[in-house]
Amino acid sequence: MPPFFGSRDVGVTRQYVLHLQKAFPQHETVVLRVAQQSKELAEDSTVFDKVIAEVRSSHGVIWAFLLYILLVSSQYRKFIELVAERGAHAAFEGNGNPLTRTRSAK
Asked: 106: burial class by Cβ within 10 Å (0-12, 13-18, 19+)?
């Protein structure tokens, strides 16, 4: 199974991913917490390169995050900006990139 970009809590978003893991146990899932690592990814190119290498070797990427009033968190945006700035978008090409998001209860 493709890498999972998810949050640390076991809220609704994580429950969706856990359900996918249980429904498809024959697939390997790698969780990459790019939002929590946004500062480290920006400052350490080795860490960023490891994430991109994992994406490149995957069969797809599942983007999972909590959606705050139709806004993606700044940490996810920072990761997306880093991908664009460093020309790493090719790692995502040819992979399915489904999006899983949940609404904030606030």
From this structure: exposed
